[in-house]
Design brief:
It is built from 20 helices and 9 strands. The radius of gyration is 28 Å and the shape is elongated. The two termini are 44 Å apart. The chain is α/β, with parallel strands linked by helices and 524 residues long.
Length: 524
Amino acid sequence: MKITVILPAYNEANRIEKAVKEVKNWMDRLGYDYEIIIAEDGSTDGTDRIARSLAEKDERVIHLHSDVRLGRGKALANAIKKSRGDVVAYLDVDLSTDMSHLKELIDSIVVQGYDISIGSRLMKESDVERSFKRDFLSRVYNFLVRSMLGSKIRDHQCGFKAFKRESILKIIDQVKDNHWFWDTEVLVLAQRMGYRIREIPVRWRQSEETKVRFLKDSLYMFSQILRMWMESRRSRKFFAISLIISVSILIALAYFSGFNIEVLSRISPKSVLLASIVYIVSFFVRGYRFGYILLKLGFKCPVIFSTEGIAIGQMINVVTPAKLGDLVRTYVFKLKEVPISSCISGLAVERLFDLFTVILFSFLSITVLGSFKYVRMPIYATLALLSIVSLVFVFSRMENLIGKMSKDVNIALRSGYFVLSLISITNWLIDVLTCYLIAIAFNVSFWIIMLAVAISNIVKAIPVTPGGIGAYEITMTGILAAFGLNMGEAFTVSLVDHTLKNVLTVLMGYISIAHLNIKIREIA
């Protein structure tokens, strides 16, 4: 029985020699025939020279070098394919996991017959010391993997794993990720293929040095969870259920509200046409705003391109219930060499100003409508209080969020704060005006429409149904009915408004895809 121990190494000049020595000591104690593979992945700090020297001194040490960075997962996959052991284990070079668990890790496969054995920092028996931030992010990440991908494992990312070589070779060619998500994808696929996995509680101590970049890598890992989820049956089931929910809400609203063609015919085709023109303008306003944010971050994008990128992202948000359009937008803007991290920062700023504006509109409309005789005082007082608290909270958090970003982003956003506020207010006024032009046939106050649009968009943001269809209509119908419209008229306004906006969004998205020569398959 031969054991292969792989040490993935990227710029580990300070630790690789100590790690190899420690692994050799423990493998000698266990008495197995073994080899140690240093999977050195395009290092630039001299790790390759040290690894080469170690291999020259001991024939049991093998150095696998790559001139370019492959990614941790790809480097591990290559090493596994070139291994000669019956059991293949890999350990993080920092040896954060206590090496006394190595025997149990290997024996779980050799003696007990498991296909895979892994160290776990999240079992009750585990003894772990790490920062609150790393522990919290790890627990959230593993919860998402279990809930979205159906995994039964507690800890997917501990760098202390062993496999039957014949089993892992059947898995790795199906793995699509080449970096940090590789471990998770291997374990999820192994469970789907029916392999037996044993999770071992370990003693683990956080290393002072880490290659993990928390914000960027967390977003990347979450995007990979979404990618696997989209490829799974769970996503198709979720999409089917969300679509059924949307259609059921619309049918129920149409039936109970008394919706009919006569009410629908009261909306003038000229009003719909004018509303369409007005709403199309909003895409260019949004495009200008996002381009302005990127300019402040140091990236210049033409307004037309920025508008098309947003249109494509919004189109995906309309047809999926998981807000995947925001991820698609980062892909589109890579065509202009905008880094994913900068695009995500721009998205965060954009969403922050949207939230600020929507809450501002809610507060203003409630304040104006408060004197109207048909608004009940308890409802008015509650909504006003919630709006004030939300407005104060968002305004205070705006400064905190900007302050936590990099120095360059901080300066850029502060310099553009006033302009972004004006553009965001203009954008949302267009959204309100679009609905008002549709509702004008029913003599509805502009302030009532402002309140209905603002609250409906907040509810719509909850990713339950595709494009918020159903959630938007039921919220707007309820608000408009509360302010004097009969149910049939209220539902008609909400249905036409949301349908018009969604149709134009999909149309603008497809036009943008065609103009940029992007294939739907690439987006998928």
